[in-house]
Write a structure and sequence with these properties.
23% helix, elongated, single chain, alpha+beta, 88 residues
Length: 88
């Protein structure tokens, strides 16, 4: 099981690797200081992106489990008559 964190800033999503504790602290400090740039690291590699955080800016954190399902669950679903993985 692998966890990916999704940071939504002003309606735009950024996917982040674990851990995000320091990043959350940096964002909070920038907001408390009245605004500031924080570097958001990339999910796989590269320089990341600098985002200007300011008080009142909508910011949402969520976690996504991107682990695969077990072979038993995949076998159970195959005989259910379901057309796709979403049950439609």
């Amino acid at each position: 099981m692998s966890i990916v964190h999704r940071l939504t800033v002003d309606g735009r999503d950024y996917f982040l690797p674990d851990p995000v504790t320091d990043l959350k602290g940096n964002i909070l400090e920038a907001i408390k200081a009245g605004g500031g740039y924080v570097n958001i690291p990339p999910l796989r590699g590269g320089p990341g992106i600098d985002i200007l955080f300011s008080p009142g800016m909508p910011v949402t954190w969520s976690q996504i489990d991107v682990g695969g399902e077990t072979a038993d669950r995949a076998d159970d679903r195959s005989g259910s008559g379901v057309d796709d993985e979403f049950g439609l």
